[in-house]
Design a protein that fits this description.
single chain, 4 helices
């Protein structure tokens, strides 16, 4: 089972730990803790990034420069070609 908890650090207490122990009885766990991060706000901090993101949104709204992929194989080919053209 994979579960993600989003919780304020002030709410971490023994009840939370006990509920995790009850949910995952005698299982080996991997616990990762990270701070909530607003990726959009981070990307918009840069004027160049913000400009490019808003241009991309406009293109989507206008159905411009969209790529249709019909299979995983087709997607893999597109990714491979993109990697080759950037080298």
């Amino acid at each position: 089972m994979n579960t993600i908890f989003q919780i304020n650090s002030d709410e971490l207490d023994n009840r939370f730990i006990e509920s995790i122990k009850a949910l995952f009885k005698s299982k080996r766990l991997i616990i990762s803790v990270s701070e909530d991060f607003d990726e959009t706000a981070y990307l918009l901090q840069s004027k160049n990034n913000a400009k490019r993101l808003f241009e991309a949104l406009d293109e989507i709204k206008q159905n411009k420069n969209l790529i249709t992929v019909n299979s995983v194989e087709e997607l893999e080919i597109l990714v491979k070609n993109a990697k080759n053209s950037s080298n």
